[in-house]
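Course assignment 3, question 2. Fill in each field.
Student: A.L.
Task: Predict the tertiary structure for the chain below.
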Amino acid sequence: MPPERRENELKIPVRNLLAIMAPEYLVFNHQDVRESGHPDWSISGDGKTTWWEFKHGVPDFDPHGLQLLTCQRLARASFCRYIIWQEGADGGNPRTLIVHPDEVRRARREKSWDLMAEQEARGFGPNFIVCYILGVHRGTRNAG
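Answer field:
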């Protein structure tokens, strides 16, 4: 399955669980404006808006230049992170990583996809991601 299609399938349970756990949050899908360099989602809730770019790496992925630059600028101006579902080419060792855009830039420059994640979890379950997002919005996780 192409990484883009798998990435879309992996986002669905994240959005569904977020709707259950924080129904008052607004989640906007910016995926359709890919050429503009916007991250996939912006989420607004508890007085804060955050930006999220989703990638599926097998194990690498293509961080588009304009989008990566926009994510770096958003991370400096407010809050932006990559959520990366990474696995081996054989599907082994699936893990979910929360990564700062500067780390994605470093990995791209060095052509090394051994990423230094801020947080990571084994597997592709949505709970880890939603809890991280809610922690950022509710102030229980570092938002900078």
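Instructor remarks: The mean pLDDT is 89. The first strand starts at residue 26 and ends at 29.
Grade: pending
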